[in-house]
Write a structure and sequence with these properties.
Layout lengths: L2 H13 L3 H4 L2 H12 L33 H7 L2 E17 L3 E15 L9 E12 L2 H6 L13 E13 L4 E8 L23 H6 L11 E8 L5 E9 L11 H4 L12 E11 L6 E20 L5 H4 L3 E20 L8 E10 L7 E12 L9 E11 L1 H10 L7 E14 L2 E11 L1 H4 L4 E13 L1
Antiparallel strand pairs: 1-2, 1-16, 2-3, 3-4, 4-5, 5-6, 6-7, 7-8, 8-9, 9-10, 10-11, 11-12, 12-13, 13-14, 14-15, 15-16
């Protein structure tokens, strides 16, 4: 282990003290924010922003595909349809096996403005689905907690989201209800969107600690989301979801138990998520601050001790039941140099996220990522971007101690990632992204699994 790795581990353990703040944080935060909702609005009429184009072709589409003018006709009636194809290939050295894989996902969506359809003012409808194919390099060759691709999943054709959204008070309030995912709205940084590894979106902490990975790709779950936007600078998101998108799953893979996305289960205890955001200096060195948290109202098991206080590794008994699981996170995105004369906030940006959760009932109790992005730097290529980032996943002391109790040859402690990704825009709506990742201690330091170097590329085409 190098000196910088040792220092990083020490920093992570010091920062993991934020778990003390997490035990009741979300309950108090959520209650306070809910009490403030009534003061945020000015009365006004409803006007939906349902993202319906005049032509029926999404503004970021790579190709103007409209056979027989069908899409234009649907758009005039208040219906938009479109999609995205993502194809990617990766090869690795290290991990538990060397190999090369190809995987892809076809995403199709439908948006509808019910006012334009003559039905309901301010009401939008959305549905989308995936056809996922290929082989995941993370599952087949590496075994990392931070998945190489944010599109990696079991091959399937599945429904994703299906919801109605009502806009009120001149779009200052939007209430969404239906089959939802949280990873499209919560805990996201602007800088992290330039990378391919899945941890930059729905982080390894959220994916590992929440039952069945939580309401995130490729699993949606019934829920309600309230978005409050009193002005251009501040916003508040509150979401309540079914806390487990694949409850009572006998398989180790929840995607097998909910293979088509049609399991609209309400059997699990609820998950509450709250996030506030503040934007500043948007016309100069733009920045965004976010503070959020979550609370799952289910029952969880201690990772090291049973109900009698004995070591699980010795007694073989289930872990001590623990009511609720929660956590906090903070995010900053900051532009530190802006391309002169640019209308969009492009240039050199930095970003960072930090997350913490209780260590007793969780695999991961600390997470950090951060990096630097270079966007709009090349004359004539304003939509290209280079991103360099580092991510750290800290295994909880309870899980580390469990490994020690078992007498494992190595005890899990952390996993780390360095990623370098360049986004090249072939044309609007069509990008190619060569990518390099180096994953330290895949799985958090598992015997027989070596550090993994991954080289790959992705192409994305919208239509």
């Amino acid at each position: 282990m190098t000196i910088w790795q040792i220092a990083l581990c020490d920093l992570a353990r010091r920062l993991s003290s934020i778990r003390r703040l997490a035990s009741n944080c979300l309950k108090a935060l959520g209650a306070g924010l809910l009490l403030a909702i009534g003061t945020l609005f000015d009365p006004g009429s409803a006007k939906a922003d349902c993202e319906i184009t005049d032509t029926g072709i999404p503004v970021d589409a790579a190709f103007n595909v409209d056979p027989g003018g069908v899409r234009r006709g649907l758009a005039h009636a208040g219906i938009d349809i479109g999609g995205l194809y993502v194809g990617e290939a990766f090869g690795n050295s290290g991990g538990f096996r060397q190999g090369a894989t190809y995987d892809g996902a076809l995403w199709m969506f439908l948006n509808s403005d019910l006012k334009k359809m003559g039905l309901w003012k301010g009401l939008c409808f959305h549905a989308d689905a995936y056809q996922i194919h290929g082989r995941s390099i993370t599952a087949n060759d590496i075994g990392s907690l931070m998945p190489v691709s944010n599109y990696g999943a079991d091959p399937a054709t599945r429904l994703s989201e299906l919801w109605f959204e009502q806009h009120l008070f001149n779009d200052q309030l939007a209430v969404r209800i239906g089959q939802l995912t949280a990873d499209t709205e919560f805990a996201l940084s602007i800088g992290g969107a330039w990378f391919l590894n899945g941890t930059w979106g729905w982080s390894s902490l959220l994916a590992s600690d929440m039952p069945s990975g939580g309401p995130a790709y490729p699993l949606a779950t019934p829920g309600v989301r309230v978005a409050i936007t009193p002005n251009d600078k501040t916003s508040l998101l509150i979401g309540v979801y079914n806390g487990d998108p694949a409850p009572d799953c006998a398989s180790s893979d929840p995607q097998v138990c909910n293979s088509d996305g049609l399991d609209f289960s309400l059997d699990a205890p609820p998950l509450l998520m709250v996030e506030g955001a503040y934007k500043y200096n948007q016309d100069r060195l733009a920045g965004t601050l976010k503070l959020g948290g979550w609370n799952n109202f289910g029952t969880f098991e201690d990772q090291r001790f049973d109900s009698g206080g004995g070591l699980i590794a010795v007694t073989g008994n289930p872990g001590k039941p623990i009511d609720n699981d929660c956590g906090l996170y903070g995010i900053i995105d900051q532009l530190i140099w802006r391309v002169p004369g640019s209308e969009d906030p492009v240039g050199v940006g930095v970003f960072a996220r930090v997350m913490g959760a209780p260590q007793d009932q969780n695999l991961i109790d600390f997470y950090f990522d951060g990096g630097v992005t270079f966007t709009g730097m090349i004359r004539g290529r304003p939509n290209d971007g280079l991103a360099i980032g580092f991510a750290y996943t800290g295994i909880s002391d309870s899980v580390h101690g469990y490994d020690v109790d078992l007498g494992e040859p190595v005890a899990r402690n952390y996993e780390a990632l360095i990623e370098i990704c360049y986004t090249y825009q072939v044309k609007p709506g069509w990008t190619v992204q060569p990518d390099f990742q180096y994953i330290f201690q895949p799985g958090g330091n598992v015997a027989g699994v070596d550090d993994a170097a991954v080289l790959g590329a992705r192409t994305s085409i919208s239509f």
